[in-house]
Design the sequence.
């Protein structure tokens, strides 16, 4: 499975339904500030047996988290049991419905608002030492109704990945790497003239949305309360991507007989793709001979833009060990521990203070890390699953779709989901 899917695996529709059902039945989710916590830097006196549930990318991540949890437990005198879920969304949904959630668990950014909106999460974010050290874009992602809930675990952004051999075959050099939309169009024309597919582009909001951000648009207002889909900025973005598709400058994975854009790129079916840093592992494992370079996304009409994909360390509002849970998250999110995770399973630290160490260790990842300064997180509102799925359906027909009508439909759907 490509790593982009891991960011989406934290919660499914069953989780949202279970949470909403449980809340409606008055199961006793505590008010967000019902229990105060000690400073995270102080180990609580009461000993705890923390239950930790993670959505692991594989043995490397599982083993690294277990080792870090064991180190924390040994230092504090607590115990911590780490469980890698087979289906995190389903298992969390069942745990909440059964009134027995784990104390700490991964929360996917795209599902965060579903949890926060029903009071399932403890809003501890500002209790972590030097909490402003986390990238502001990630803090914003885990903020709901003005309250910062949980510490970002790690993150990735989208960048432009270029096949070095195909680039040279088309007579292009480093000077031709596109930094604007106009330049992206120009190099695409040159590549196509050499019978090379210019760009493999995933046909969902998780890729096309980056162009919306670069045009100054998005589906919802920063406070998560107002639909903004039907805007001139979003229309500019979709029309631009539609043009790339109609001219065959951009083709979808399906058109290139691939399961995802990274596979098409690895097979040499396109000279460029837009993906996150999970593509590194995929290329290393499946296409080790492919030579490539990574660059920041070409800027749009409103400047640089990209999307971020992240999880946070969620703490259950019903946990009996909130102080110990905060202490645990504190240990998991130090710059040193985040670098250890980066070395172990390839994630990027969410703390700005770890940036220099990370880029020194992984210099080719600098474009991904730089994107954190201007990245946009997922739609930050609950009950958006069907709305976003419908938008993806429209994007998958973008080359033949009336973009203005598509955005008008999404606008109406977002408004309905928000209760406007």
Sequence:
């Amino acid at each position: 499975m490509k790593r982009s899917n891991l960011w989406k695996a934290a919660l499914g529709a069953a989780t949202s339904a279970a949470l909403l059902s449980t809340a409606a039945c008055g199961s006793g989710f505590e008010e967000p500030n019902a229990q105060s916590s000690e400073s995270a830097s102080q180990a609580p006196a009461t000993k705890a047996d923390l239950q930790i549930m993670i959505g692991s990318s594989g043995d490397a991540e599982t083993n690294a988290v277990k080792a870090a949890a064991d180190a924390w437990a040994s230092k504090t005198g607590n115990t911590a049991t780490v469980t890698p879920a087979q289906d995190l969304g389903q298992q969390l949904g069942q745990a909440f419905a059964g009134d027995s959630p784990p104390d700490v668990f991964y929360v996917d950014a795209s599902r965060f608002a579903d949890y926060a909106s029903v009071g399932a999460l403890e809003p501890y974010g500002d209790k972590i030492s030097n909490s402003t050290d986390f990238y502001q874009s990630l803090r914003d992602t885990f903020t709901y109704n003005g309250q910062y809930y949980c510490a970002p675990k790690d993150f990735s952004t989208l960048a432009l990945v270029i096949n070095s051999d195909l680039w040279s075959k088309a007579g292009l050099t480093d000077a031709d790497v596109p930094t604007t939309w106009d330049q992206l169009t120009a190099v695409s024309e040159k590549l196509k003239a050499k019978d090379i597919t210019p760009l493999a582009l995933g046909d969902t909001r998780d890729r096309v949305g980056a162009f919306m951000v670069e045009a100054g648009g998005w589906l919802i207002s920063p406070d998560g309360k107002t639909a903004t889909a039907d805007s001139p900025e979003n229309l500019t973005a979709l029309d631009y991507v539609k043009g790339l598709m109609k001219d065959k400058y951009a083709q979808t994975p399906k058109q290139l007989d691939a399961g995802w854009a990274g596979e098409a790129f690895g097979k040499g079916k396109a000279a460029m793709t837009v993906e996150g840093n999970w593509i590194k592992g995929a290329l290393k494992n499946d296409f080790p001979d492919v030579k490539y370079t990574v660059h920041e996304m070409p800027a749009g009409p409103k400047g640089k833009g990209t999307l971020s994909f992240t999880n946070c360390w969620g703490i259950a509002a019903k946990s009996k060990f909130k102080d110990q849970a905060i202490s645990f998250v504190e240990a998991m999110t130090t710059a040193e521990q985040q670098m250890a995770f980066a070395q172990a399973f390839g994630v990027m630290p969410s703390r700005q203070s770890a940036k220099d160490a990370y880029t020194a260790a992984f210099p080719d990842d600098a474009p991904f890390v730089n994107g954190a300064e201007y990245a946009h997180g997922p739609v930050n509102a609950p009950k958006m699953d069907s709305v976003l799925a419908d938008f993806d359906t429209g994007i998958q027909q973008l080359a033949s779709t009336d973009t203005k009508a598509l955005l008008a439909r999404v606008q109406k759907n977002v408004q309905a989901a928000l209760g406007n």
